[in-house]
């Protein structure tokens, strides 16, 4: 292998995001997105990938470039079968297809992107990097739900976790920010975007995470409810007369911040709060309450917390969310520096007070770099 570049593809249901990274010098020669697949001239994923190839070729970075070492594909669900980056073969594609019932909204698009990319460059190594893989180290006591074991095993009902590439990247970047190796640091990672998840990382290995069988469990999110009594589903069915699909739509698309106040953009919620809007204030308070519960729980899980890292759209940009989430936690050794917290920066930085026993950091996530790094390491081995 002579090339040093990795093309990272994230094939969604209606879009394909791409980024070309050079692992030799850290540069990113190209990036982009093809949206609205199935509408207009971009009829399907084959057309979208051809457009990506054409855009790269127009910049002299075509898929036939000898500098291209591999393609790295984001795959949402690896189940218990895939717990590390995996070189893609026909057998691997078949196994990922078998996991579609666990991720019906994401894995089909991921598989389609893989098949099309392989057809364009069948000679090029292609690697699947799984969102669930980083969480495969969670102990059984945390991964198991307390339901009948035979039923759970038959249908794959357990906690898998998601956003794994982000949690992996941020936990390592946080250790680097502290001048330590990942194996020396216990970190709570708070990935707060429209989708949100928390993880407890001990000595560089994930031991707990908030998302479960699906990305619905855990924190309050933009449109997802997060934790809810499962009997609420039976109640909505039996008393409310709602179908399974209607409840699915309610919990995934009409809940969370949007369900509470009509907005899932934290900037808009902040604006409404400043104007005295009680619905926006309540939505914010519920969001923060759930977040603080997880910080407390993961402090207990880890025993010793060295750092708390905020990342993703809300985590990186909302000083108000960070301040509210960390307020009053001095008993846990957590003290925020309000001046540091208010500063905006695109680089990883500490926002904790000098006297804080626990470092609090803002660490911009870089899932594309994580996928590229895992892909390049595998094909270079």
TrEMBL record:
Known pathway: Metabolic intermediate biosynthesis; acetyl-CoA biosynthesis; acetyl-CoA from acetate: step 1/2
Free-text function comment from the UniProt entry: Catalyzes the formation of acetyl phosphate from acetate and ATP. Can also catalyze the reverse reaction.
Entries under Gene3D superfamilies matching the protein: 3.30.420.40
Highest taxon in the source lineage: Bacteria
InterPro entries with a match to the protein in the record: Ac/propionate_kinase, Aliphatic_acid_kin_short-chain, Aliphatic_acid_kinase_CS, ATPase_NBD
Signal peptide: none
PANTHER family referenced in this protein's UniProt entry, alphabetically: ACETATE KINASE, ACETATE KINASE-RELATED
UniProt similarity note: Belongs to the acetokinase family.
Residues holding substrate: 74
UniProt cofactor note: Mg(2+). Can also accept Mn(2+).
GO molecular function: acetate kinase activity
Chief location category: cytoplasm
Subcellular location, record wording: Cytoplasm
Assembly behavior: Homodimer.
Protein name per Swiss-Prot or TrEMBL: Acetate kinase
Species of the source: Streptomyces demainii
């Amino acid at each position: 292998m002579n090339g040093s570049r990795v093309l990272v593809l994230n094939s969604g249901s209606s879009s394909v995001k791409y980024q070309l990274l050079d692992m030799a010098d850290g540069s990113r020669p190209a990036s982009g997105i093809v949206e609205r697949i199935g509408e207009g001239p971009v009829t399907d994923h084959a057309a979208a990938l051809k457009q990506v190839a054409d855009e790269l070729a127009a910049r002299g970075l075509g898929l036939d470039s000898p500098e291209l070492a591999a393609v790295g594909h984001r795959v949402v669900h690896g189940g218990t079968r895939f717990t590390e980056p995996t070189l893609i073969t026909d057998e691997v594609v078949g196994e990922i297809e078998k996991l579609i019932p666990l991720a019906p909204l994401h894995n089909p698009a991921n598989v389609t992107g893989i098949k099309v990319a392989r057809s364009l460059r069948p000679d090029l190594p292609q690697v699947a990097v799984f969102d669930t893989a980083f969480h495969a180290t969670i102990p059984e006591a945390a991964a198991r739900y307390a339901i009948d074991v035979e039923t759970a095993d038959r249908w794959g009902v357990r906690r898998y976790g998601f956003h794994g590439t982000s949690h992996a990247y941020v936990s390592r970047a946080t250790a680097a920010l502290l001048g330590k190796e990942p194996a020396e640091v216990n970190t709570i990672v708070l990935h707060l975007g429209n989708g949100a998840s928390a993880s407890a990382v001990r000595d560089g290995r994930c031991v707990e995470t908030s998302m479960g069988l699906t990305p619905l469990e855990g924190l309050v999110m933009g449109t997802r409810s997060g934790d809810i009594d499962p009997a609420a589903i039976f109640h909505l069915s039996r008393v409310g007369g709602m179908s399974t699909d209607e409840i699915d739509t309610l919990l995934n698309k009409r809940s969370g911040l949007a369900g509470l106040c009509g907005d899932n953009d934290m900037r808009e919620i902040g604006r409404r709060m400043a104007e005295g809007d009680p619905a926006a204030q309540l939505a914010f308070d519920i969001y923060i309450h759930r977040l603080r519960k997880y910080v407390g729980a993961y402090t207990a899980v880890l025993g010793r917390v060295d750092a708390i890292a905020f990342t993703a759209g809300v985590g990186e940009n909302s000083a108000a969310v960070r301040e509210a989430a960390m307020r009053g936690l001095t008993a846990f050794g957590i003290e925020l520096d309000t001046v540091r917290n208010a500063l905006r920066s695109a680089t990883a930085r500490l926002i904790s007070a000098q006297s804080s026993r626990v470092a609090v950091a803002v660490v911009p996530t870089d899932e594309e770099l994580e996928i590229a790094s895992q892909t390049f390491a595998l094909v270079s081995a």
